[in-house]
## 1
Amino acid sequence: MNSIIFTAAARLLVALLLVFSVFMLLRGHNLPGGGFIGGLLGAVGFIVYSLACGPKEAKAALRCSPEALAMVGLGIALAAGLVSVFFGDPFFTGQWYWVGGDSYETAAFSVNSVLVFDIGVYLVVLGGILSLTFAFEEET
Amino acid sequence: MAGDSDPNAPWVTTAGMLPVLVTGALFVFFLGYIPQIAAYAPVRWAWDWIPSLDIALTFWLDGLSLMFALLITGIGTLVMLYAAKYLAGQPQFPRFALYLFSFMLSMLGLVLADNLITLFVFWELTTFTSYLLIGYLHVDPKSRRNALQALLLTAAGGLAMLAGFILIGVTQGTFELSELNAAGSMAEHAMYLPILILVLIGAFTKSAQVPFHFWLPNAMAAPTPVSAYLHSATMVKGGVYLMARMHPSLSGSDAWVWSLTIFGGVTAVFASFMALRQTDLKQTLAYTTLMALGTLTMFLAGSTGYAITAAMTFLFVHSLYKAALFLTIGVVDHGTGTRDADLLGGLARAMPITATVAALAALSMAGLPPFIGFIAKELAYAGGLEMTLSAFVIPMAIIANALMFAVAGIVAWKPFYGPQGKLPHKPHEGPWPMLAGPVILGVLGLLFGLMPWLVAEALIEPAVAAVMGAPDTGGRLVLWHGVNLPLMLSLATFALGALMYWKHQQLRAALARIEAKGPDFDAGWDRLLDHFMAMAKGQTRVIQTGVLRHYLFATFTVLVVAVAATMVLRSPGSVSLSLGGLSVREWAIAGLALAGTGVVVLTSSRIAAIVGLGVVGIAVALIFIVYSAPDVAITQLLVELLVVVLFAVAALKMPHLDPTGKQRHRPWDAVLAASVGAMTTLVLLYVVDTPFDRRLTDFFEAASFPEAFGRNIVNVILVDFRTLDTFGEIAVVLVAALGAYALLKGARAATKKDEGQ
């Protein structure tokens, strides 16, 4: 698509979309959002970029193959589930570690396996959709 | 094919020696249990595996499993040592060693398993590993075909057996063999007959009873060490083991006695004649194995002390002499380049040790005193006389044993003594790693014959006790019983056997003529497979037209018919539809959806149709927003966006819609679309009419924050309460993406290829 306006606008839009996708991922536990939505938004960002600048540019911007990204995502999700095994809990029980306190109310923030799992979901959705789209664009 | 190892290649390699050492260590480990088991104190190891399904990884060591474990590890050690030399220098030897070792472990698991499901798992593992072993010479298509035949037949039997096991578990309330056997016979249960039939199908396919026998001789395509191992102590004895293991719980009915006696007897006699008919020594031995399996099955039909003692003794004896004979034939093949009984002769001068060992093993097989084979045969006659169907068992046993006598002569006398044969190359004696196994096994056959008390109390009697379900008075394994009926029967057997050996050339010609007229099971199997393939092809031609319209039409038609039929049959009552409460906003959204649909249906531009579809999707997303489901709405919007973009990318490259081409289908499409729409609307109205069950919603609302520290219930359900489901879903996303990726890349590769041509 040879439109200077679109190409110029796309660069701004993509940056916004990607930041927004991470934002949606991180706030998902308490407000609308989460790994699925975040991943979809990220994918939209890269697709817009690839429509504006071509799939080759978009692939280069991703820096790794989308298939690998999706597989790593699934691995991260699995690893998040396995963490509970070391604490004697059933598979996929959420593990929470409070930083600066000992409960949700007093802690400054938390490190938890649930968010790690959501990051895995994010990467699978992003990688899965992008691998499809890139293959599609190169094919047609 | 067989003797192609390099005689100068080093045979003491890691891949060769490691299995020998580990298996030998296991053998010593099990030897240590002899005193405890001989005192009738079984050992049980247990680990929880799938507690929710009552499946545990439990192992049970009693007389029966100990005897099998010792045979598997003992003969296994010798065979692996033999194989290290036999296949030395072959580049694929490490792979072979791995297969053989895995097979040994699976077999060990099979005979030690206490839980029926565990037993099944190991049973199938032996099937798979034996598939790899039989097909080891995979360059040869015949080898591959025979391996597949063994796999399909025994795996099919294994599935029947699994069904039987599940029936047992459901009706008896336990999968533990030790508990089942302690509870005694289940012959009175209403489900007994189906259970028996299913389990016996598994046992008969594994132990190659007629009419499932044909895979066993074909499995001889494998290298000789494999044949020696699989067909002496292990794989084919799996079925016999199962029948012996479940004897206390499954025997005790006429069905058991009749089926085992008839199948076993027919197999034994059929196989003995077939053994005499063969000229390839390995094929001859394969059929004698079949004879042994038939005999064992026949004697397991009995429940008296003598019958079971006969079965257990013969099982032990057969493992010793059959392994020795197979290994000897491997040495002969290695040393001369042929296994053809008609070519071999006068080898004793060049191969004195091999000749002696072959004689030792064959004398035990022929059942001559003072070998342990003689004791086994005496016991068989004594046991047979006690059995319900002795009028059938005794003649069958005499014929089979007489033929074994003749076959022993063919295998061990003719190749080594008599006139010099026409050999492919000058014979030479085998190297010591290949002679160790046959020598040890052959000598043991003589030693145990002279001193039967060595094995009687340590191995045979505990095994008999395990099969009978109670310690039994022993003292039956004696070389000299005095002049009695079994001895007379033995003498008659020797006379008949000698006659058969003397006339074996004529007998073989006659058998070949009969065989040519009889049914060919092997060809029948091929025809059966061909029919399967033809059926699959025909069905694919009808169902898979490759036209997208057909698939969609079929899918939606089934949907409408199935849902409509359910609604009519279940008649959920009337529904009401009130549109009074809708505001302007909702009417506007409905109008948007309708307008989008109209565009899709009426336009002749593909891009316009896609955009119309997108409008419908966005209308749906708006509905989610109106009813405050922001997560779903965002997802819906994004997915719609992606679909439109993807379709648009594709549509740019596709030809224009042909407005005339599809006119013919349009009335039908309209009818179908209207029906699906009407059906969905009706279903939704019914759903809305039923009162909403808030229990789950209440739970998640209440538990979301205190238990999972999240206020967005949708997300908390996805990543905490129902994580496993989500994990499954993202796995599906990944697999679907990779699948589509492969399809697209494959299509491109195919196009490129076409362009290239």
Note: Chain B has a mean pLDDT of 86.
## 2
Amino acid sequence: MSTESDHAKTANGTMEFRAGTPGRGGGIPLFAPPPVDQIAVEERAASLAKRSIKKAAKVAGLKLAIRMMDLTTLEGKDTAGKVRQLCRKALTPLDSDPSLGPCAAICVYPNFVAIAKEALAGSTVKVASVATAFPSGQSPLSIKLDDTKRAVDFGADEIDMVIDRGAMLAGDYAKVFDEIAATKEACRHAHLKVILETGELGTYDVVRKASDLAIAAGADFIKTSTGKVQPAATPPVTLVMLEAIRDHYYATGRKIGMKPAGGVRTAKQSLHYLVLVKETLGDAWLTPDLFRFGASALLNDVLMQLEKERTGVYQASEDFSKD
Amino acid sequence: MSTQELSRTKSAIDKSTASLALEFGHAWDYAPAPEAKDHVRIQPRYDLFVGGRWTAPKSGKYFLTTSPSTEESLAEVAEASAEDVDLAVKAARTAYEKYWAKMRPAERAKYIFRIARAIQEKARELAIVESMDGGKPIKESRDVDIPLAAAHFFYHAGWADKLDYAFHGRKVRPLGVAGQIIPWNFPLLMAAWKIAPALACGNTVVLKPAETTPLTALLLAHIIEEAELPPGVVNIVTGAGPTGAALVAHPDVNKIAFTGSTEVGKKIQKAIAGSRKRLTLELGGKAANVIFGDAPLDQAVEGIVNGIYFNQGHVCCAGSRLLVEESVHDVVVKKLKDRLQNLRLGDPLDKNTDVGAINSKMQLEKIKELVAAGEHEGATRYSAPCALPDKGYWFPPTFFTGAAQASRIAREEIFGPVLTVMTFRTPDEAVEKANNTMYGLSAGIWTDKGAKIFWMAGKLKAGVIWGNTYNKFDPTSPFGGYKESGFGREGGRHGLSAYVEVV
């Protein structure tokens, strides 16, 4: 049993945001998301992966995927030069075909928000910044909120936060909920994407729980992964999260967005994710406003497939800019 | 949002009657993805496969087999008369005495393995022909029917030389000539279910495929020919009811195995009463698919779809009665409605087709008649809003809510893509309603509690019970019914006893 003093010991300032009774498993009374059957949900995701997407459907799907992409660089070795190059790529994914793109957003660390903002000025491409002590989230809440506020001050249009997976697995749902709610407040006008880091959550049941918590706490988007943990996005995990979004829509009419991130590397994979969205949530979600891919390597493979469809032959990978 | 609101959200989902429907339109359509069929060779005419030879029927008669999705004729097929059946049984008897019963079991296994491998090698062709002749979606014939047919031959080939260990140390001997009559819903798979155990146990076979779907059994005859089985070990006689009746009535048949309607099953049982023929019957069903409130509902909805719309509901073990706990009835129905919008009905050869054509005009009429009865009895009908092709036999995925336990749609086997949804309040009531049928072939149980699955499985009078899944088949697992769903088991060690005498 957790007690008040256990929580005081964490000394991370979350107490003031607590909505429910703190405690392991007893965090939020009556909070009982539906169970998820692992075998059946994996089977469903696999069956949707068998949809055959050819010709016009393939081209339309891949063009849509480009417009849904959050082109991402999140490395210790990121520089202003690298970020500017990536912005350029997001604006014009393929010089020879200006009808493609632009991508939905650039996703960077807070230090590069201002640079990206400048490089993308006048365009529709958003700047997303990770925040809240990304990727582990293992810092006091005050630092996470400060991280968020600064990123917004730098000009971020979107904030990609991480949840406290430790608290999630320990059953301290109130803490997870409160931190998301507080971050949402700190975002002000910026859109909030909540990264569940599903690769650390262990079961689909916990993924579903975390999805429901994040949505209830104010997430505009829920996102699978930081890209720093394996496995990152998978089709069944995405399906579970889409189902949480669907139930929330049924109950409230509010549309939450979805972002699989990490592990989506090929054009074919991206089409399968679009199939999942199309057949789980329908037409309304087939837009960059409600579905994004967090990816870096994906774009060039999509471009290569589109060029193949246009010309009938595969180009060398060297024919596409590697930003 | 506060935690109180959160819990309210949860209960709102459960009780929601709001009209927030999702839209599954044309924002991003799939292009047609037809499976190429140009390499598939269907002969203009098929004779009978008797004694290892293709022989013209003594009757001189042929009938047409057509594609239910296009109404085009695919081939002429021989109609076996009583005389032809007699020749086939004689060939099987000769093969039994001369070759098959004398052969070392390990040698028998080699032939059966050969058949299994050839089915795998020709899987694509078999799948295409199955979909053309029967109307089922290519994704099902490709991913279910054909691989399972091969698996049944592989599995039983393995038993051929181990029969001495299958019956608690007791020895067995084959029965002799087995007469086997199979239905049109899984043409090749049912042929495999019948032929593989019979051969493994040392019997020879006369098989009669259904008259609407004879083609894959005839392709299997070609495979058997190429596998160089001794002549007469497997004989394929095509024809309709009278051909089957001649086979049942033949005095030199030792065993009849029938899969089909309860009505015909009863006739067969009458016909062979008093004879020494052994009999197994796998007949109709009206299975309960039971969904408890604590079930993983999104996956349960997939289970409902797989239970009743798989193979257009032409499945004897289809989950055609949905018993859903009243507390989650509305949310399950809402989810099911949205799910139905995503079922793609159309060309069976399109790789994205989920629901194919109804197998025959006659079956379509039967479905329509029962659906009309359901409407007349006051149940509420919902059909998927999909366009039906102009040619061929089609019925949209449909379900009824508010049906009475006593109504025809809750009692009679529809054998089509039509589900009857009813509610229960307690587990005991669920058991009572699930068992309240003349059938007892299969059932499904959906709950997050393992103990409840086991508790309920022990109380259901059904031969096959699935927990948190539906319509899963495996050659190692015995399949068969209670009550008017028949007797005898197919598959697994239990299935062997239908083809041997324990000595």
Note: Chain A touches chain B through 53 residues (CB under 8 Å).
## 3
Amino acid sequence: MTIALSQFGEVRLDRVSREFGALNALRDVSLTIQRREFIALLGPSGCGKSTTLNCIAGLLPVTGGAIWLDKNRIDTLRPEERGFGMVFQNYALFPHLNVRQNIGFGLKMRGMPKAEIDRKVNEALGLVRLQGQENKLPGQLSGGQQQRVAIARAIVIEPPLVLMDEPLSNLDAKLRLEMRAEIRRIHNELGATTIYVTHDQDEALSLADRIVVLRDGVVRQVGTPKELYEAPAHLDVAEFMGFRNRLKGTVVSVENGRALLDVEGSRISGVARENLSVGSTAYAAIRPDDLVLGEAGGNALKVKVDTIEYRGREFVGTAHSEGGLDFVFRSHQPVDLGSTVHLQADDQRVLVFAEPIKGRR
Amino acid sequence: MEAIAPTTRVVQGPSLRQRLAARGFDAVTLLVVPAAVFSLLLFVYPFAFGFILSFEPKNGGWLANYQRFFSDSYLYDTIANTLLLSVPVTLLNLLFAVPVSFRVRLMRRQRLLTTILVLPITLGTVLVAEGLLNYLGPQGWFNRTLVALGLIDQPLRLVHNYWGVFASLVITGFPFTFLLTLSYVTGIDPALEQAAATLGASAWQRFVHVYLPLLMPGFAITFCLSFVQAFSVFPSAVLLGEPAGSTRVISIAAYQAAFEEYDYSMASAVAMIMGFVQLAIVVLVLASRGLFYRGPASGAKG
């Protein structure tokens, strides 16, 4: 393997901000990315994740802060001077160039001799498994193949950093899984430092070494997939990590990292994830997996079943409480529609968060 | 209950109507009729009439008009005169339109600027010509300013010659060329340029390697349409040029044959030659499009 990625220590975002007129798309984003790391920027649409990527690539100037590549400040450089490989959401392949010319484009721009371009392009073709397709135009390729060309084109220039902007969002579900594995494999083979933007937490969890959760242009939490999945720091991060049930209640007591809430007259106990004060409003977050049919009393709420869906291994139901709270739960046996049941959760699996501060816009 | 089996065999094939529809003829096809009648009456018939008329000269054999045209330098020079005006003007307009389009593409308030640029089309060639006569004339603002600035001693002769017509054609032709160019330039996915930039291409390289190849077919069409407009120049060649000399364009020759010599047959022959020259250039330019990529100018499917 002679596609060697340039040596550097780290990329550092230092309080990077980006304003669009009155709108703060990014506010003081600080982040350090180590060599060979795979970072996922995760968040709902409009959270600033693509803006962050475009600022790093140089396609958008930052309006505050700085970006450093080791000791060199790069946010003042033009995109062509930064030399980061970028994979675009719609691939942005040059429609008039064939696969070989598309992949070799960056090398040609650098004035590399033709023989060497050919050698490197062949290698990249092998890496993304596109041998035999090199003379086709992008319009003649399937979505997955176009994706592979886009990846090959970005990595063949041996960039210090590979940037991917929702690269799988245009593919169908099956191909998305396949390409996800491909991206993983290519990252393992090359060890290219990668920043990957996605709104799909499964993608982020399965690909990334570390995940950065953004919301309203602010970093909400940075951590390994395991940390984020098991211990989200805020309610919005928890919701993104699959805590689909959120139960609004009042704090009754806080003790040894455990909180007791009064939710519609029932007592719900869980792990306190934020500072809580007795008498304030708080939310208990529970995954559908952890909400099961149970008895009245122990960490349970009385609900009425609205829908029940068969999912093969189990049933997924929705229900509502008398106070109007909505629930999603799993069940191993079918439940009658309209019946009243008690949903119960293990208090180790319930996370309690303070009321979120309204997003500033 | 008995199972329902297909007992009746289909004997007839699809009806005539269905078969016609499969070939693209159905009631909707009738909508073409008004346009077809219109073009038959106002284009095909006059054209055919003129074509035949051109082979029925006042005197001499059936090719006499054409023989006369190509043996008289006063007549055949008009082809060169017209080409010398229309080709450089069209190229210059295109050359102006490209950078302006690239800038306007990025602007928020395109509408206002586009309106200003398009205004000359609505003014009409005659008004522009009259205006230029004053403005570029020996006592016009242009010359007086240059003299006042000490850049020249004598007023430049800018009207009643080649340059007067040239200026007028640029002014009236530019908006049209610009609008077409703008539509082609904005049709290109901006992500392509961004991709080229991240791959290390400088602004010039991005233009040469990404934009230009994708725009060439559009430029060819723009050239043809602008060229045809400039080639049929008449009012400004008379008003601003020297209609007996360097700007004696081919339409003037046709006009003189028809309304000074009252030789409609000769006038038709000149018109046929004019049409043939235009056609030759247009075919040549359009054929050159084959050298370029002609598919969609975005990142394919997406």
Note: The first helix of chain A runs from residue 49 to 57.
